[in-house]
Amino acid sequence: MRKRMPIFAANWKMYKTFGDTVKFIDEFKSNFNKFDKNKVEAVICPPFTSIFKAAEKLAGTGFSIGAQNMNFEKEGAFTGEIAPAMLLEFGVKYVIIGHSERRAYYNETDESVNKKLKFALTNNLTPILCVGETIEEREAAKTESKILGQLKADFAGISETDAEKIVIAYEPIWAIGTGKNATAKDAVDVVNFIRKTMAGIYSTALADKVRVQYGGSVKPENITEYMKDETIDGALIGGASLDASKFIKICESVL
User: Fold this and answer.
1) What is the DSSP string of 24-59?
2) Among 46, 80, 69, residue whose Cα is nearest residue 120
3) What is the C-alpha separation between 145 and 250, in angstroms, rounded?
4) Cα separation, 109 vs 114, whole angstroms
5) N or C: which end of the chain has fewer CB within 10 A?
6) Helix, strand, or coil (residue 224)
7) Domain extents in the chain
8) SS3 of 10, please?
9) How far apart are CA 12 and CA 99, in angstroms?
10) For the segment 63-95, what is each residue's pLDDT rounded down to a tens digit?
11) Which residues pair with 128 in a beta bridge?
């Protein structure tokens, strides 16, 4: 029996139209007959334009809906942004915060990530916080210092009670969308470091409760290796989650 419930989250990024979403969920629901919400949590994070329909079609199934981003303001003149209340209205439960693509392409910083985490928690949204190193940082043996810095800054001012609610996704930047992936041992080592860091920031009890995923070129062919060690609590999946049959196989890896 695992200590923590595994959570698999599909990050569709800027893929799938409204119609594509309907087709995906119809296939997903009709083929995923092993789902047991008491054993695994599955989250689908579609584009904003498809959240309403995805939530509608997944209602009552035990599957959850997530968003790929949110603003740390309640409302205002922020063209192109989306507020937590807008997500909650459609039944969103999770929100991805601090993904490396947001940090790299849209200048998100640990300061803004920290604000988003706090505001998500205030609005009863569960954050999936992404942390990870570049290939240059990895080759320079700076993986741990990079992640230590991110965690300290991202969790600044967040209580232990709230920190426990946050899902952490270790996503080595060099493995996202590249076809490369960290070995299971590498992933376990970093996830253990994340737990050690969280124990230092908060407590051993917190570190034992917080869920930590792996993300980075996860697919049906390698998920079993990652999930062999109960240190890893699931995965944040990009490309493979666009195929319903592949996402199903990934979710079924712990059933």
Assistant:
1) HHHHHHHH-----TTT-EEEEE--GGGHHHHHHHHT
2) 69
3) 31
4) 8
5) N
6) helix
7) 7-14+41-254
8) strand
9) 13
10) 999 999 999 999 999 999 999 999 999 999 999
11) 96, 167
Please report where in the chains the tokens 């967040």 appear, as a residue: 158
4-54: pLDDT as tens digits: 999 999 999 999 999 999 999 999 988 888 888 889 999 999 999 999 999
Q: Tell me the catalytic residues.
A: 99, 171
How far from the centroid of its chain's Cα atoms is residue 104's Cα? 17
Q: 7-14+41-254 domain in CATH 3.90.1150.10?
A: no
Query: Which tokens sit at 189?
Result: 């080592």
Distances, alpha carbon 39 to alpha carbons 85, 157, 175, 186, 197, in Å: 29, 32, 28, 26, 27
Split at pLDDT 50, 70, 90, the class of 106 is very high
Q: Across-strand partners of 41?
A: 7
pLDDT at 178: 79
Which residue, 235, 133, 147, 118, is CA-closest to 175?
Answer: 133
Burial track 127-157 (b if 16+ CB lie within 10 A, e otherwise)? bbbbbbbbeebbeeeebbebbbebbeebbee
Which residues sit opposite 97 in a β-bridge? 129
pTM: 0.96
